[in-house]
Amino acid sequence: MPEGHTIHRLAGALDAGFGGQRVRVSSPQGRFEEAAQLERWVLARTEAAGKHLLITFTPDAQSDPEGPAARIVHVHLGLYGSWTFAGDPGFALAGAIGAPRLRVGEREEALAGSTRAVESSAGADGSADEDGAEPGWRAILPRPTTRLRLQGVSGLADLTGPTACELYDSSQRDALLQRLGPDPLRADADPQRFVDRVLGSRTTIGALLMNQEVIAGVGNIYRAEVLFRARLDPFVPGRELSAGIVRGIWDDLVPLLRYGARTGRIVTTQPEHRDIEARIVERSRGTLQNGEEHPDAVARERSFYVYHRQTLPCRICGTEIRSRDLAARTVFWCPRCQSVRSRRSPWTAQHPAGPWADPAGQAGDPGGRSDTGDAGPASAAAPAQIA
DNA sequence: ACCGTATGTGAAC
DNA sequence: TTCACCTACGGTG
């Protein structure tokens, strides 16, 4: 159940695992029959735009990914879609924190601990090339529901349950990018487009944040959480907000989403607002790198201020968190902290360098890519500064 | 076995 | 505003 951070993370994982490679492309389930057209094409690059994933294939390594021969697979995970990775140790998520994982998108579990990964009896299934090299991994059997399988020399990725998995041409890609609002995780994002849309709308800020034409990539968790961090009532119409408040929401989302893309999990609570135990790393499932925070360091139940915390006391004031339908989804908020009366400048305005800053060398725009690439565990090192 | 739920979207009413 | 859709999993019977 992904928001935009997951899709950027996936884009990085697919590029790391298959980028530049000739790959096997199939639809074990049969519901994406166009997969056959791409069999043994080259996965040129993967791009995330909001919650949309665009995987560009070319017939050979020399072809221009922007050229007319390129084909694009458009994937939207919807509520249920997920990718499952299997392959060499660290495959696709090499450089990620902790152990290699399965099931990016909906849930992640340790590769070694998976009991669902049925190994094929023929180890040669893992071979994607014809050079006779023995793969160091074994292909798992696809579930019957696997819509799309990508298989390279060092691993595979299975897609199940997507809302969309279809072939796009470049004009369809352009139309999609045109339709979407700015994505805080993309280098080409224009925050002013978001600010202008919000300030010009009578719709509530809580609904606007869920509208992908207003801002791309925010989902139900980030909506609730960023509004709490701004101490903003979800039901305030956009036009009643100041430009500074709206820009502050954007500026807060950037490091929050980057953190999510980098670690694979959403954490929005300030350390001082978590319970004391939360600062203790209960257990370690891998070697920490460069003193980086282990993703398990913040237990899920301490990661949010309001999401799914209805009836629980607010972490700040103790008032009972409320929930209510807004824009077809349930919004969660603290009626006291997020009342109009207590509205103030967002948290980032006071603390420009929060704990969500990327550790040095961990993330940044590797250049040449249209997305920020911070999802990419294997993305090039470049210091990413928070404005 | 069945039910409810889930970080989503878009078409139909 | 309601509904259908794509899937997996935990709880309940």
Please provide a written account of the structure.
With 387 residues, the chain is α+β, with helices and mostly antiparallel strands. It folds into 2 domains: 168 residues, N-terminal domain of MutM-like DNA repair proteins (Alpha-Beta Barrel); 167 residues, Helicase, Ruva Protein, domain 3, CATH 1.10.8.50. The protein has 7 helices and 12 strands. The strands form 4 sheets. It has a 4-stranded antiparallel beta sheet, with helices on one face. A hairpin with a 6-residue loop joins strand 6 and strand 7. The chain is globular, with a radius of gyration of 21 Å. It binds a DNA duplex (13 and 13 nucleotides) through helix 5.
What order do the SSEs take from the amino end to the carboxyl end, as H and E? Answer: HEEEEEEEEEEHHHHHEEH
- Name the structural class: alpha+beta
Query: What composes the largest sheet?
Result: 4 strands, antiparallel
Provide the spatial order of strands within the biggest beta sheet. Answer: 1-8-9-5
Low-pLDDT windows of residues: 96-102, 106-129, 276-293, 361-387
Query: Based on DSSP secondary structure assignment, what is the total number of beta strands?
Result: 12
Q: How many helices does DSSP assign?
A: 7
The separation of the N and C termini measures 29 Å
Radius of gyration of CA atoms, rounded to a whole number: 21 Å
Indicate the CATH class of the largest domain. Answer: Alpha Beta
User: How many domains comprise the coordinates?
Assistant: 2
Superfamily at the CATH H level of the largest domain?
MutM-like, N-terminal
- The CATH level-2 architecture of the largest domain is identified as Alpha-Beta Barrel
* Percentage of residues in helical conformation: 10-25%
| DSSP strand content | 15-25%
User: Tell me, what's the shape?
Assistant: globular
CATH topology of the largest domain: N-terminal domain of MutM-like DNA repair proteins
Domain FPG-type: 305-339
Cofactor: Zn(2+)
Organism: Brachybacterium equifaecis
Keywords: DNA damage, DNA repair, DNA-binding, Glycosidase, Hydrolase, Lyase, Metal-binding, Multifunctional enzyme, Zinc, Zinc-finger
